[in-house]
Amino acid sequence: MIHYPYENFYAMLYGVAKENPRKNVIFIDNERYSYQRFLENVDRTARALEVIGVGRGDKIALICPNSVEFVQSIFAISKLGAISVPINTMLKNEEYRYILGDCGAKAVITAFKLAQEVRGLRDDVASIEHTIWIDKAPFEDAKHLLLGEMVADHVHHHSPSPAKLDDTAVIFYTSGTTGHPKGAMISNRNLFSNLVAAQERFDLSPKDRFIVYLPMFHSFTFAIMVILPFFMRASFVIIPSILPFSNIVRQTLLKRVTIFMGVPDIYNALIRARLPWYFLWFNSVRCFISGGSALSEDTLTRFRSLFKRAVMLEGYGLSECSPAVAVNLLEKQKTLSVGLPLYGYEVKIVNDEMEELPCGEAGELIVRGECVMQGYLNNPTATAETIQNGWLRTGDIAKIDEEGYIYIVDRIKDLIISKGINIYPRQIEEHLMLLPHIKLAAVIGVSDPHSGEVPIAFVELEEGYETTTPAFIKAQLKEHLALFKIPKTITVVESLPKTATGKVLKRVLKQGNY
């Protein structure tokens, strides 16, 4: 069993801040936060949350953009022994209602620019007692609070966190094939195992500086780009928005970033960006990390020819594994491989009966180790299906070569990954078939040079609705689904290909000749 020096995030922050009080940990725009200043903000935030009734085991949802407030809230929640629930900021109101109701969130921390989609959540979800705004509130009453005012009202003081190593620290919601998101419960131990493993694989030191422009609600960004720098006594740069992309390039250079994490779409953008010669000569990046979906061989080749002084490491993970599972080595990378399992983790390739397959043969990838989640919140059936005898079934088809390098071949589930974000066709199909003019729908993923994959839909129309257009269907969907889930194309067909039992044959649709 791996030894961990801390029981929870807050204990880690407190220990590191006492050792390095003056060192800067966070850079954002023209502002910087030392470890000591950040710790004081966290202590004030924790006290402010405590005063409104937040305590051990309470779930606090964060529908929040990249910001210092997001990070200090995470640590304040840990100090109280409560549980963070970071949620995708691109969802719609009804999607938020389901997640908040499922986890029983006691409070929501959010921002004014998201006011339209978070409207009415406190009234619709019985468990929510307060909405906390990190900038300005659209309403003025006792239930809508400004974080800045709350924090200003309290002095900072240290008190140990009650959170233990095996307590749930965070819940990442990941959509399932049923269409409803499932909450993966991740303990402090789960996440610390990832931090220890990442430190070893990337050969990290306190001198490293990360850049955080991908959404902090994403499990990989949360663990590896936000929490890991604190564990390493390192620092990171927060970019509030991915646009303009030129700002990411500029901040990478000016803030001397050494660790850069992205998804294939970002690396394709860097290749196309016509970067100035001084960026290529003077940037400090020593390691680029790619995840979310597979990099093409062409992208890898072009990227390595452009950045000759840095290493590109492709990896693999999933929220249920806290989240990183495998990454290539600094000293040896294999093209199209996601690398070797991280320190302390085991992987196998198995058949449908969970029997291990020979080297080089494709089957389901399963994972065992202290990264494996505690289970799905309120869903023991799904937990039992996913974790069997301590092994987590990933639902991904893979193969392992003679040196132990993992290659992801395909996905068992119908998962679509677009710009590193998971999209589940079943959810889109269910919304399509809620529309009165649609009889049957099928959604598949197709390759896209900019996004990796995008969803496309095929629909059968109900009798009497033959004049319904794809544009009208898209407009209806936009009222219920996040924009990244809207199918790129919707094709109206007379009849979808089906089995004898009426199940749609998606493989026929994927062949592209239907």
TrEMBL record:
Coiled coil: none annotated. One of its GO terms (molecular function) is medium-chain fatty acid-CoA ligase activity. GO terms for biological process: fatty acid metabolic process. Residues 17-377 form the AMP-dependent synthetase/ligase domain. PROSITE patterns: AMP_BINDING. Residues 427-503 form the AMP-binding enzyme C-terminal domain. Pfam families: AMP-binding (PF00501), AMP-binding_C (PF13193). Keywords: Ligase, Membrane, Transmembrane, Transmembrane helix. Belongs to the ATP-dependent AMP-binding enzyme family. This is AMP-dependent synthetase and ligase. It comes from Sulfuricurvum kujiense (strain ATCC BAA-921 / DSM 16994 / JCM 11577 / YK-1). The lineage of its organism: Bacteria, Pseudomonadati, Campylobacterota, Epsilonproteobacteria, Campylobacterales.
